[in-house]
Amino acid sequence: MRDPLSVLTEAFTAFLFGKVETTRLPVRTSTGQAQAVYLPTAAPGLGDSGVIIGREVYSGKGYIYDPFQLYGQQLPAPHWLVLGESGNGKSALEKTYVLRQLRFRDRQVVVLDAQGEDGVGEWNLIAQELGITPIRLDPMVANDAGIRLNPLDPSITTTGQLALLRTIIEVAMGHGLDERSGFALKVAHAYVTEHTTDRQPILTDIVERLRHPEAESAEAMNVDIDDVRAWGLDVALVLDRLVDGDLRGMFDGPTTVGIDLDAPLIVFDLSHIDRNSIAMPILMAIVGVWLEHTWIRPDRKKRIFLVEEAWHIINSPFVAQLFQRLLKFGRRLGLSFVAVVHHLSDVVDGAAAKEAAAILKMASTRTIYAQKADEARNTGRVLGLPRWAVEIIPTLTPGIAVWDVNGNVQVVKHLITEKERPLVYTDRAMTEASVADPELEWETEQRAILIEQQMNGTSQSTVA
């Protein structure tokens, strides 16, 4: 029996405020209909500090990413891999990301621009907007007024110079140097650096010394001088290509005065180099080592090294080893390496599969745009993506990508501002302009809804 005081209190309360409790009849329904009762949910974001990429398609909330803010907490390494077929928005993402990063005062970016049209690289418009002159490496004009980077620049340590020379030769020859050729190169380099004091040593000096070695170098090893000359002949022929061959003029003289390594953006324009020739990995090696010794400094700046057509790096064992060291070294000094690749199969099935696996492992952030189904399955297997992400990659429309940030996998739509649009889209990238076409916005939004339903296992027939 209830307490009379409680009954009196409830009656008085009901008189003043109305009945407190209501009674609802039960409702019978199906699980398909009842799911509308539950509020939509989405995976947690990456925080609110960094640059805005766009919005997460499932929740509609802003997607913010910054490897420097996430490093050490959510990211074991600040390096980033971008994958996808041409025409899906990789180029637009890279450019807007760099422009937004440069709004922070302690950021600096180097871009290796391997694509272009009308005689200039793809990043030329952005460089002009920022008042920066790209470093255009072109063997056709180098002898007249081009840019030179000296592999024997005194700003590079003697150990670094010798390592760079070996890498250039090994890339060009397609195999490692044997002990005898390595000895001939070492004694030639030692002689040149020791006896050239009135100017910068240059590659011509090395070639000349390989062809005409000093007697004391042979005597030190108790071998004949003709043997030392024979050991260095192949090395001399390879280096002669940079002095008097198809790569002449870019690396066979003192470093060009006036290259501003303190500029917020440094663009190496490689668009005049045949991307499918051996020249490209040689260039990558030289630029990589040159930057390692002249650009990366312990000055608390956060640096981004973005490489277009990065398979030229990852597909060459010798260049991949060089960049692997650069990534390990640069991580301590605030370097984020961004590699842009069309197909993962270009590198994982190539000559440098072991080195490629090591570099991919260091990339804690992976962004995957639309790929064919077979390629998507291969990408998912290599990168360890969840099944639902692999299934939707072939259905992604331009501007939408799967982001995997150390296991935090989300689908993100990249957004571009009106001020960025003319700098991001070039005539060459017409296929990527579909992201900016208002007439296609409805189709993109509907595809995002279908992707969400695919993940949740609901029927597509509910989309109007």
Spell out the blueprint of helices and strands.
Blueprint: H1 4-17, H2 31-34, E1 51-56, E2 62-65, H3 67-70, E3 79-83, H4 90-101, E4 107-113, E5 116-117, E6 120-121, H5 124-129, E7 135-136, H6 142-145, H7 158-173, H8 179-195, H9 203-211, H10 215-220, H11 225-231, H12 233-244, E8 265-269, H13 279-294, E9 302-307, H14 311-314, H15 317-331, E10 335-341, H16 345-348, H17 353-362, E11 363-368, H18 373-383, H19 387-392, E12 400-405, E13 408-414, H20 421-424, H21 441-456
Parallel strand pairs: 3-10, 3-11, 4-8, 4-9, 7-8, 9-10
Antiparallel strand pairs: 1-2, 1-13, 5-6, 11-12, 12-13
Tally of separate domains: 2
Q: Could you give me the name of the CATH homologous superfamily of the largest domain?
A: P-loop containing nucleotide triphosphate hydrolases
CATH architecture of the largest domain: 3-Layer(aba) Sandwich
The gyration radius over C-alpha positions equals 29 Å
| Mean model confidence by pLDDT | 80
What class do helices, strands and sheet pairing give?
alpha/beta
CATH topology of the largest domain: Rossmann fold
Poorly predicted tracts of residues: 427-446, 458-464
Please list the strands of the largest sheet in the order they lie side by side.
Answer: 2-1-13-12-11-3-10-9-4-8-7
The CATH C-level name of the largest domain is: Alpha Beta
Q: Given the C-alpha coordinates, what overall shape results?
A: elongated
* Range of helix content: 40-55%
Describe the biggest sheet?
A: 11 strands, mixed
Termini separation comes to 58 Å
Q: What is the number of helices?
A: 21
- Fraction of residues in β-strands: 5-15%
User: Count of DSSP E strands?
Assistant: 13
